[in-house]
């Protein structure tokens, strides 16, 4: 089933120390209503059923260690619900290691907003080293689709980021998006080491 990726969720050290190397601070960006809170609750929910209780950090941020390609990685999901709030947006653009840039495939305005956010992000993060994935969420709502897969892919190509379509409602591809972030960071790390 689509929830099978949760098998790869391992643990969060009860001391609050990451078990998978230095934690990756991931920020969810996107217009209101695209599914950021839904993403976050899937992320938080993954730790329920496990014997680790201590994955909630100050300010309600969540930390989780997952396994990607046989290697563990620790992710801290930062809270940035209100991306219309200038200050919160500025702050998140300065503190993240990686970004999931969400839009809803049923809402063209949110797609345009994602492009704006990408441009703002590039201003804050001119370096090529910051992993960014453009995420077209709500792909279960096929009849309400306003943004095609090829438009999403083309936009990601223009903005030099990866692309994935997800459904938080169906829990489809949500973990793949987090895995994609980890893989991108590793690629960068490995190319630096080489
Ligand atoms: P946020 O404002 O970006 O945090 O968006 P929310 O996570 O609050 O989601 C807004 C609304 O869209 C809620 O009613 C969600 O249940 C719904 N929603 C989020 N993701 C999906 C999805 O993948 N498919 C469908 N059908 N609805 C979704």
TrEMBL record:
This protein's GO CC annotations: plasma membrane
UniProt region (Disordered), positions on chain: 1-22
Domain of life: Eukaryota
Low complexity bias spans: 1-16
Molecular function terms from GO: calcium channel regulator activity; calmodulin binding; GTP binding; GTPase activity
Main location: membrane
Subcellular location: Cell membrane
Keyword Cell membrane: yes
Keywords assigned by UniProt, alphabetized: Calmodulin-binding, Cell membrane, GTP-binding, Membrane, Nucleotide-binding, Phosphoprotein
Function: Binds GTP saturably and exhibits a low intrinsic rate of GTP hydrolysis.
Family: Belongs to the small GTPase superfamily. RGK family.
Complexes and interactors: Interacts with Calmodulin.
The protein's name: GTP-binding protein
Natural source organism: Myripristis murdjan (pinecone soldierfish)
Gene that encodes the chain: GEM
From-to range in the entire protein, with total length: 73 to 266 of 316
């Amino acid at each position: 089933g689509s929830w099978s990726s949760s098998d790869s969720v391992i643990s969060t050290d009860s001391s609050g120390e990451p078990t998978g190397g230095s934690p990756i601070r991931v920020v969810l960006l996107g217009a209101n209503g695209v599914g950021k809170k839904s993403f976050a609750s899937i992320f938080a929910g993954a730790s329920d059923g496990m014997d680790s209780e201590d994955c909630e950090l100050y300010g309600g941020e969540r930390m989780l260690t997952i396994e990607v390609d046989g290697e563990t990685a620790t992710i801290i999901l930062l809270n940035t619900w209100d991306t219309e709030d200038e200050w919160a947006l500025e702050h998140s653009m300065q503190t993240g290691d990686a970004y999931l840039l969400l839009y809803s495939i049923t809402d063209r305005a949110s797609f345009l907003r994602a492009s704006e956010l990408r441009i703002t992000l590039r201003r804050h993060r001119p370096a090529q080293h910051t992993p960014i994935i453009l995420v077209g969420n709500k792909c279960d709502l096929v009849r309400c689709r306003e943004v095609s897969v090829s438009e999403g892919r083309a936009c990601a190509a223009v903005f030099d980021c990866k692309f994935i379509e997800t459904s938080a409602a169906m829990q489809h591809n949500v973990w793949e998006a987090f895995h994609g972030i980890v893989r991108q960071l590793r690629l960068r790390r490995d190319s630096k080491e080489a």
